[in-house]
Amino acid sequence: MGKKYLIPLDGSDHSKYSLLWAFENLINPNIDSVLLLSVGVLSAGTPCEYSAVTRNILNGDNEIDLERQKAEEKAKEIVNDGKLIVKNLLKTQELPIECFVSSNSDPGRYIVNLSREQKIDVLVMGHRGTSSPDATNTGTVAQHCMHSAGCTVVITRKK
After folding, report:
1. Which CDD domains does the record associate with it (predicted)?
2. Fold of the 4-37+76-156 domain
């Protein structure tokens, strides 16, 4: 039995690079399994964004529900793009890929919890290599996962 990999995707070039990097350097398609995850993320009062920002749902407005639905639809698109990348990489091989899509207020915590629930061996994720002043105080999703996940964490950075 091979290893179980979790690769969170946010639609950025950095997360796509982490997916490609994992297949080039770590994943053995003959024995390993892969879980792709995208967390659609909202920030209250701002347009829908799908990067590592925190979403605060203040109430159950229809408008908020609509934004959540849009975030989940975007997350599904991102996961489907990831599946297509894997299919093109492997060409002839079939690899079992599980996909998870969520809209969650804390992507880092969600990723860590999913990695524990699914008994992930290796978490591979991209990092932009920059952080805002707020991220210096609160940390990035990658930092949270690196310090909190109960598995090996590989953080890639596109040059």
Report:
1. USP_At3g01520-like (cd23659)
2. Rossmann fold (3.40.50)
